[in-house]
Specification:
Oligomer: single chain
Radius of gyration: 19 Å
Largest sheet: 6 strands, parallel
Structural class: alpha/beta
Number of domains: 2
CATH topology of the largest domain: Rossmann fold
Strand content: 15-25%
Bound molecules: pantoate
CATH architecture of the largest domain: 3-Layer(aba) Sandwich
Strand order of the largest sheet: 1-4-3-2-5-6
Length: 283
């Protein structure tokens, strides 16, 4: 596996792969890799014959007071895991490589509509930071496909709209959430939890499961969501939101909606956890 930190070498390596007619799959990450990331690599491996990953803790998607400085940076372990998973190349640039003028002077990408509300309401500027770096990575790698985890459901919707609106010729592959045995969705931020908080964290997923069951049995959504929020608070979470949206575009659910998604975001101690579940609404 090649480790590349500069743009010229990245373009050389990818140009070579392209000249050999290889289909390029991209796995963008911020590092501190867990089995959820390895599922992205496996999904890329299954669809492409050259798999490239990026590791970049993107300052542009962190707000003031968020965990940019403390975000775990574990490059050596990450490289070993990527190599073991069959990755061909990893791009791990410094900030000055992607943002040579600094982030304040950076041209940015805004994705209206789907970036607003939910995590967008709690983390202003976050999705613009994601859309900007993902656009940059698509331009640099020119991948045939790119794999993203479904835990970040709103991020996936933002990226799908970005690709459609800017006509990026990239297939977006959504990879199912990977969970620990107790149901907690894998996330680099789970590492912030104390042992006691880690034992309590799966209650976010358990609450989503119970709210989904209530919704599928016909409980009114306001009532089901209200009960779910109350339960999260009882369990020691500080919820940002618990929301039911249309599955396809995160629009507001109407009487005609059948395919929905239940999304939750909540702070538990130092970690902000997010999770989601698809919901089949009854007629
Ligand atoms: O999901 C992530 O890890 C990040 O938001 C991404 C897509 C790598 C952009 O920095």
């Amino acid at each position: 596996m090649h480790t590349v930190t500069d743009i010229a070498t990245l373009r050389e390596r990818l140009g070579e792969a392209r000249r050999q007619g290889r289909r390029i799959g991209l796995v963008p990450t911020m590092g501190n890799l867990h089995d959820g990331h390895l599922a992205l690599v496996a999904a890329a491996r299954a669809r492409a014959d050259y798999v490239a990953a990026s590791i970049f803790v993107n300052p542009l998607q962190f707000g003031a007071g968020e965990d940019f400085t403390g975000y775990p940076r574990t490059l050596d372990e990450d490289r070993a895991r990527l190599e073991g998973a069959g990755c061909d190349l990893v791009f791990a640039p410094g900030h000055e490589t992607l943002y040579p003028q600094g982030t304040a002077a950076q041209t940015t990408v805004q994705v209206p509509g789907v970036s607003e509300g939910l995590c967008g309401a709690n983390r202003p500027g976050h999705f613009s930071g994601v859309a900007t770096v993902v656009s940059m990575l698509f331009n640099l790698f020119q991948p045939d496909l790119a794999c993203f985890g479904s835990k970040d459901f709103q991020q996936l919707a933002v990226i799908r709209k970005l690709v459609a609106d800017l006509h990026f010729p990239v297939e977006i592959v959504a990879v199912p959430i990977v969970r620990a045995a107790d149901g907690l969705a894998l996330s680099s931020r789970n590492g912030y939890l104390s042992a006691e908080q880690r034992a309590r964290a799966p209650r976010l997923y358990a609450t989503l499961c119970d709210v989904r069951a209530a919704l599928e049995q016909g409980t009114a959504s306001d009532e089901a969501l209200r009960r779910g929020l109350a339960r999260l608070v009882e369990d020691g979470f500080k919820p940002d939101y618990l929301a039911l949206r249309r599955h396809d575009d995160l629009g507001v659910v109407t009487d005609d909606t059948r395919e929905a998604v239940l999304l939750g975001a909540a702070h538990l101690g130092p970690a902000r956890l997010i999770d989601n579940l698809p919901v089949e609404l009854p007629r």
